[in-house]
Write a structure and sequence with these properties.
The protein is globular, with a radius of gyration of 17 Å. It contains 8 helices and 9 strands. By secondary structure, the chain is of the alpha/beta class. Helix 4 links the parallel strand 4 and strand 5.
């Protein structure tokens, strides 16, 4: 079972921030998951929401701001919003799952990945056409289908677009989805699992799944 740091280590530091990524690395996670969105001038920056309001007192819509304008946003921990380039530089060779939030992100994502040949990326998204394009251009980069409400259809979609696996809300996980995923040789990670007892139960029920957590210190043995 792999332990994936959700938005870095969002239970230890502000999500998707430099501090959060460093905390996840310090805890020895197997992978780090984080989100990226496009700016007005088509740079990919590391942030989950469409706006900055939840992580900063300076409320701006990411897609309406240039990268230069976003540089003026101070996060609630005093740091800046990271670009994808900066995040990959910081994280180094720790494997990452890059969750693509916006459509039309593929061209910029490919350019960034080309600049970071030592990175170990996977890509996840609710935007399934983005994953299809990524697989077509970079077939060796693992892709993960995300789905809000359809825990059986997600397996069919992943198989149809030749994805590596699926990422699923822990409460949607069920025996049929697990069996179908195993049948199609799909990897599965579940989010967001913060309690070790629940983690152990999920591991008993679904032995091959990986866990995405805000609290990696509760799972990683040092």
């Amino acid at each position: 079972m792999k332990i994936i740091g959700h938005r870095g280590a969002a239970g230890l530091a502000l999500e998707n921030s430099r501090s959060s990524f460093l905390a996840a690395i310090k805890q020895g996670v197997d992978m780090i998951e984080f989100d990226v969105r496009l700016t007005a001038d088509d740079h990919l920056v590391v942030i989950h929401d469409k706006g900055t309001g939840r992580v900063s007192e300076d409320k701006r819509t990411v897609r309406e701001q240039t990268l230069a304008e976003l540089r003026h946003v101070s996060l609630s921990n005093g740091e800046e919003v990271l670009t994808l380039d900066e995040a990959l530089d910081l994280i180094g060779n720790t494997p990452v799952i890059i969750e693509v939030k916006d459509k039309q992100s593929v061209d910029e994502l490919l350019l960034v990945l080309e600049r970071h040949p030592k990175a170990v990326p996977s890509v996840a998204s609710f935007q399934h056409e983005e994953l299809r394009q990524i697989h077509r251009v970079l077939p060796d980069v693992p892709t993960y289908v995300l789905e809000h409400y359809a825990p059986v259809d997600i397996v069919r979609t992943a198989h149809a677009i030749h994805a590596t696996g699926i990422g699923l809300n822990k409460w949607l996980m069920n025996p049929l989805t697990y069996l179908l995923a195993r049948h199609y040789n799909l990897d599965v990670y579940l989010y967001t699992v913060n309690g070790p007892r629940l983690g152990r139960l999920l591991h008993v029920l679904y032995p091959t799944v990986n866990l995405c957590t805000n609290q990696p210190e509760r799972f990683v043995k040092h």
